[in-house]
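The step that takes the researchers longest sounds almost clerical: writing a folded protein down as plain text. The outcome of that step, for a single protein, is printed below.
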Amino acid sequence: MDSPQFAQYAVLGVIGIVTIVAVAAFSKKLGVAAPLILVVLGIGGSYLPGFPADFALPPEVILVGLLPPLLYSAAINVPLVDFRRNLNTISALSVLLVVASAFITGSLLYLIFPDLNFAAAVALGAVISPTDAVAATSLGKRLGLPPRLITILEGESLVNDATALVLLRSAVAAASAIVAGVATVNIGGVIADFGYAVVVAIVVGLVIGFVTVFLRSKLRDPVLDTAISFAVPFIAFIPAEELGASGVLAVVVAGLYAGHSSARHFTPQARISERLNWRTAQFVVENGVFLLMGLQIRRIVESVDPKLFPAIDSIYVGLLMTAVIIGIRFLFVGPLLLWLQRHNEHKERRNRRFAQAIERVRGRASQDARLERSRQRATRVYNRRATDLTQLREEGFGWKSGVILSWSGMRGVVTLAAAQSLPADGSFPYREQLILVAFTVAITTLLLQGGTLPWLIRASGIRGTDRAADRRELATLLDAMSDAGVSVLESPRLELPGDDVVDPEVIERVRHDTLLSAESAWERAEHGAGADALVNSPHQQYRTLRREVLQAEREALLDARSAGTYASRILSRAQAMLDLEETRLEQIDNPSGS
């Protein structure tokens, strides 16, 4: 790339970042998701005088350079408990629905394009099948969608990328084999390859997650810790891809593991730093990709050979595929909701029988130590299942949620990159037309579904979390944490460096500050008043005792998370409060940060 061209793209990059920030600032006032505005601006910008007519972003830049950190940044923020509770729904949407959509749309494309073999048609079906939840979740969080619905949308978009890309890889290989004269495709081999890609990806993701969490837990500098975290997506992605597995799924697994482990193994400073830095990176990359989607439209349209298949006809095919995938999603979600309801009822009956079995062995267990330990383990399993079922029942998934879920099937980043990764080796005779079809699907779903989703949410009357109830639940959790913290002050094992005698006034001061958060939370819950600031103290005794209290509170928080008795959003708020307090104490003792 010569210097003038490099300078041109550098200027475009600066303009792009400024545009992203400006759009994000104004989109909240307009009530429209920023990705929708950016796509429209990108389309308009591609036709401005002076814009490079041949502007194109290599698909490898997105699939290898941008997609892993995007998925990782999303995965570390998805509560593992919520993901596990909704795993059945997420799996159905991200695997079964993607496969069904790919084959149904592929069959239609096979009938429309006369020279396209069936495997190549399924490959494009795989391209347009995965959803992108960025626009849906950004609107949903602002408009107050139920947390369970947002978790399902986020979980689906994390996993369905892996399904689509593995299916795309198998379909492309089959298409090339057909062109090469191999008339048959081994369906069993394709299924075995899919299973191998999933299993190996999960193993790689867990191993990378465990190793990187262990290494990062030894670093006390949040700058170094965050720097390592930026490399984790690629550390998980590259080995999985080299082993023939799904690098995307490996990144998601590593992200879920790291996000779940951060509360126990990372320092508060590292968590705060990572959260802020990843949010910034995610914001720029996510919105930047949508802007790039629009900017590439002109080149894609102009590259279509009208003699082979006109561009306008390709757009019509894209509109047809849009209608088909929307219809498939609606037809899939309805039966899924009925199955989920019956499945939860079945799990409740099974858990009641499990409780009865535990009760029957209670008498014998008191006489047998090993049987008693087994009974206690079984009781913990029962309690976790009961808590899961209670949370799922309280966050009921009715027909209104089903309608929103069905309409939140926008396509985006993966569709953009995967379409352009279709090989130009002759196995895809309508390659440019197929890319235009995929882009039409992505942009139409973004503008149509994303543009009308706010109206649909308001019209349905669906409501998310009750803020007053959340404040009460947070206050209850802080009460339990405060009780654990205060008990430390009353422990006879409490010691200070140098065997100093603890001043009773210091103990009382720490006790007061420990209870202050809970008292303030109850005040907000009852009266909506703001919390008073915690009292800062320069005395070392105070800070030492306060750290002991915070450690006990954190253990109580982790116990509450393990039990699953509180909503994940409540646990996250409580953890953020502890992180801020511990960081404040660290800054007092070590103001230089060294």
